[in-house]
Design brief:
Elements: E1 2-5, H1 14-25, H2 48-56, H3 58-64, H4 71-81, E2 83-88, H5 93-105, E3 112-115, E4 126-129, H6 132-141, E5 145-149, E6 161-162, H7 165-172
Helix pairs in contact: 3-5
The chain binds magnesium ion (MG).
Magnesium ion binds next to loops.
């Protein structure tokens, strides 16, 4: 099988690193919410968070973010029998470069990386993603079957959802 795996919110704890650095730089601020995909609603600085995360602190966030617990083992299992494609959207070329650096630094097994804003372009069997709009588009275009990786910001997705990597493996091995 050919399996697509999103990176941020599925394998890389991007949001966790963003929050950590935000509160290091703004210790008296409080987080407003974390249940929307748009991080512009999460912090008191509003849309300024894009410059904070994508430019000023990009190197640190994108290369130092943690791999979610058990993610590497999960990728190893997938990579043993299946073709594994990272399907990820990055807002600019520098963030693509830093993402490749992060993948290599963490020695994450994969066959190739597809950088695309439109994830329905991935042609394969399943695609694991955490963004409702991506999942909706993938299910419309039908180049792969979308599976939602459960996160606080995708509770509006009504389709198939997994709470763990093992559950995803169970589904694709059916
Ligand atoms: Mg994502």
């Amino acid at each position: 099988m050919k399996i697509g795996i999103d990176i941020d919110g599925v394998i890389r704890n991007w949001a966790g690193k963003l929050s950590e650095i935000y509160f290091r730089e703004n210790p008296v601020h409080k987080q407003i919410r974390n249940d929307t995909y748009d991080v512009g609603c999460w912090f008191p600085i509003g849309k300024e968070i894009y410059k904070f995360g994508f430019e000023v602190h990009a190197e640190e966030i994108y290369t130092e973010a943690q791999v979610y617990p058990e993610a590497k083992e999960f990728l190893k299992k997938l990579h043993k029998d299946d073709e594994l494609v990272f399907v990820t959207h990055q807002p600019n070329k520098n963030l693509e470069y830093l993402t490749i650096k992060w993948i290599n630094k963490n020695e994450l097994p994969h066959d190739c990386i597809l950088f695309t804003k439109d994830k329905s372009k991935f042609k394969g069997d399943y695609l694991l993603d955490d963004y409702t709009k991506n999942l909706q588009r993938i299910s419309m275009v039908r180049n792969s079957i979308p599976i939602c990786f459960n996160q606080p910001w995708n509770q509006d997705w009504n389709g198939q959802r997994v709470n763990s990597y093992d559950k995803f493996l169970e589904i694709i091995n059916k």
